[in-house]
Fold Aspartokinase.
Amino acid sequence: MKIVKFGGSSLATSEQIEKVFQIVTSDVERKIIVVSAPGKRFPDDIKVTDLLISCAQLSLQGKDYSKEFNQIIQRYSEIANGLGLSEDITNEISLGIELSLSSKKDHPARYMDAVMACGEDNCARLVASYFQLKELEASYINPKEAGLFVTNEPGHAQVLAKSYEKLFELRKKSGILIFPGFFGYSEEGHIVTFSRSGSDITGSVVANGVKATLYENFTDVDAVFSVNPAIIHNPKEIKELTYREMRELSYAGFNVFHDEALIPAFQAGIPVNIKNTNNPTAPGSRIVKERTLSNGPLIGIASDNGFCSIYISKYLMNREIGFGRKLLQILEENQISYEHQPSGIDDISIIIRQNQLPVELECQIINRIHDELDADHVVVERDLALIMLVGEGMRHNVGTTARASKALANAGINIEMINQGSSEVSMMFGVKSFDEKKAVQVIYEEFFSKSVI
Amino acid sequence: MKIVKFGGSSLATSEQIEKVFQIVTSDVERKIIVVSAPGKRFPDDIKVTDLLISCAQLSLQGKDYSKEFNQIIQRYSEIANGLGLSEDITNEISLGIELSLSSKKDHPARYMDAVMACGEDNCARLVASYFQLKELEASYINPKEAGLFVTNEPGHAQVLAKSYEKLFELRKKSGILIFPGFFGYSEEGHIVTFSRSGSDITGSVVANGVKATLYENFTDVDAVFSVNPAIIHNPKEIKELTYREMRELSYAGFNVFHDEALIPAFQAGIPVNIKNTNNPTAPGSRIVKERTLSNGPLIGIASDNGFCSIYISKYLMNREIGFGRKLLQILEENQISYEHQPSGIDDISIIIRQNQLPVELECQIINRIHDELDADHVVVERDLALIMLVGEGMRHNVGTTARASKALANAGINIEMINQGSSEVSMMFGVKSFDEKKAVQVIYEEFFSKSVI
């Protein structure tokens, strides 16, 4: 049994949903279909989920949301018409969304979640209706009835362990099951969504629950690329990668697959196949537990910017038990999560995402570090980028650091930071943001253009 | 005014003390002399301080210490005789040490400190007597009267700020002042020692107090070497280095100068000149605030072994605010200080000195990390060495990492860890202990044999 998840672009139009139908019916193993909300039809289009968010926000502010609401209904209506479905389904969808929008607003975050979930929920109803119209045995599955229970953290739901056992029951149902992605139910019965792009999580959870043989994740690219195609033209595709390689790549700029979504599949040992709705015969990229190391030391290069470092120096810091802990405590009290902490003898730098550190908070934190830790110097440096080199082959390969740092040096790029030594499958270089693109290019050149792969 | 400190080997015999006399009298600026206790005369010799420690330990156990006591008196007696001093001084020293040894033992650590301090204190008395015999105006200075006040932490005294002002008064005294190193007095009037080799600290504190123009530190080597001579035969000498370069080198294996001793001199901007009692005309090594960068990117390579890493992995660790802080809390509660923390996305390694982690404690800590942090994996890896590349030139030099990592790769040495990015003047590579020597050799070869210096 295969779980097949389709992303927003695969459900954006009736033509796309027709492709979904073809894909599902071309393999009898494709039993449970998890759907996102309709996504963008063209680059400047607005996703249904974003329209729903606008509606909910306006509604919470007591403002008129009819324009956005009509845009949503228009989207569903166009799809329904294109698929040859009757007006009834559009009317039902309209009523359902209006009902959500007029529900209680005493918990704004909960209200938000309930409205947002309409995107996937109605898309699932619509797809089920279309499949039925095509005389396929198909039914919409409600996540509550299916037993997808989650923690009561609006926008950040975590699956409760008991869900898996309950979801296993889905195996007994006949026909194709259309399951809305992105949300589950709290034990109190409220709709709670996963973080954005969370339909990937739903697919993975369901795959784990029913002990699927494969979790197919249909999106709009042929494969996971070894590097961001916006930086390298026509980069090498990754045919097979391990869960942890995918996780490391997802961290910095690889948004093909929601990184939290790997866990349930990983735990059940279910391979994930990233495929393209628009080119379903392409083999795509398989995410597996182990792979043969037929490529070079690297499988991919990821990068992300918008980081800053807080540099703290204090003479004899390294003799002071508790210094690092107190420093992290100050960050924690300000709800700041940190990424890395390179350290010298008497100094330490904390790398964080700089959107967590507005200037006002920066001043407060600098003052606290000075006052409470008696630091000699505290300096914040902004606009850093992290370049992540990922590959299982790295462990067996002396000289990866030398090749990467040489490539950067030859390009005149200064390495602000290196973090290597904990992960067996990744190595991280910090550079100035303005060097990010160049850095990725020269490392790609070194490992992917030169090596025999 | 110059402060001149002589180490134990410079005071080990009457011949050495004669050299001290020549050095002091050859420069009228050499006004305050700080002395260690008599050190080793030959490699297997026992330092007077070590004999004093043995006496104090035996005494605390209620055992006979007469053998060690006699050895100590014998040392002083031989020196006194060699210098042509009368028996009186040896008898005074003998009485003084006996008095310390028979003092109250209700605070063993305090007792220990009082006995240990006899080594320097009597050496200062002896040197002063000799200088007087040579008809030089010279006097022994008692640290209590001079105002060297410290915290009441036996074996780990920290200078109290008020000392500096009081020490400034020493400028008014005429003649040469002989000041015993290694200890000060608590505000309650107890003798408290600095950490071992703490005479360097006394010299630096006094230099700061009297606002000296130079702090000369006489030892038994011509200069600070760029690398451990036990690893590289006849290595390059360092003529000039900055305070922070010296501090970084001291951390890992450079024991020429006590690293805590740099602070007072650094704070007052007083240059430190490391010189050789046995070759006083050699220029030695100057430690200064800023230097011209006439050498390559590196000034020295230090290394040390006996480290281990605690590797912890947990899926989605990097989203968990507080994970790192809780981890450090566990270490802190076990009084473990850590050196570095390289981190991946979902894993972190804590590098610590492995003498802090006996097997029993290792098990306890692994269990706590599993239980309290819900970690997926916790693995301890022992026998790591850290190689530290130090140099102010590094900041201005793209490619240092590339050269170093290439040299290691060419030698087939796997880099277990890289820590770079906080300190501007150092970069650290972690390798297996068995690779330490080789790693230092190839990096030395790369930066000191090839580059034009």
User: Anything to note?
Assistant: The domain at 300-449 of chain A is CATH 3.30.2130.10 (VC0802-like). The mean pLDDT of chain A is 93. Chain A touches chain B through 61 residues (CB under 8 Å).
